[in-house]
Fold:
Amino acid sequence: MNTQDKKAWAIEKAGNLKDRLDDLLKSSLVDPEKMKELTAHYRVSGIYHYSFLNSLLIFCQGGMLAHGFKRWQDLNRHVKKGEKARIYIFTPAFKRKEDAETGEKAEYLAYFLLRPVFDVSQTEGEPLEYVHNSPDTANYSFDELAAKVEALTGLPVVVKPTGRARGYCSPTEIAVNESSNNTDRIKTLFHEAAHALLDHARDTDLARSRKEVEAEAAAYLVLSFLGVDFELSREYVQAYGADSAQVDRMEIIKTADRLIKAVRIQPEGEREAA
Structure:
């Protein structure tokens, strides 16, 4: 395949992946049962080091746990003989540019490349050790997560009585019900943080049902990625049908990704793919 053919293939492949991702989001983000299926594989921790978007791309291409050829070797597994790449992700390509004034060279993102990865079903070798979070208790500190959410949103997180509501988001604060346990507080924190990042408090034109779908979907994606077990809220289940056509699926993904990057501890020296 010559250079021109490779470029045409990459453009067509990238477009196809975006279409498949959009189809996945259309069917999943507004259906509680499909949402649970979509996020089931994030309940295994200690494996993925991709961005949330690439994790979704792996899922929509039929993958569960995927790595590059060399990474599988590092885990004492190898790609089976005869297996062909069928899953692709986007990886960033960086270049160095010299500053005209200082003469110093700085790295910048130049473009994204398609890179093949292999699903665990395409490999063999030593068994993988999965680390499962408890279904009853979140292995995270609410206070630590709240501090990171404050830094991301610019809003103070306060724990106080909120009546029957688990919490709320206003233009001036994120409130979480003081009666909630740790897991419930964390879930509410992400839900209300999603409202803040989506600017729902100021947008009076959007229907409340749509706001609840978008915030709950983003929160549930983050919780699933972190391995925290939590049921979808009643408001989400009641609202998803009414506003399924209007829900902004890509904004949900972007919001979940921002929250994940804000609260996730990145291994030292590791650069995350796109």
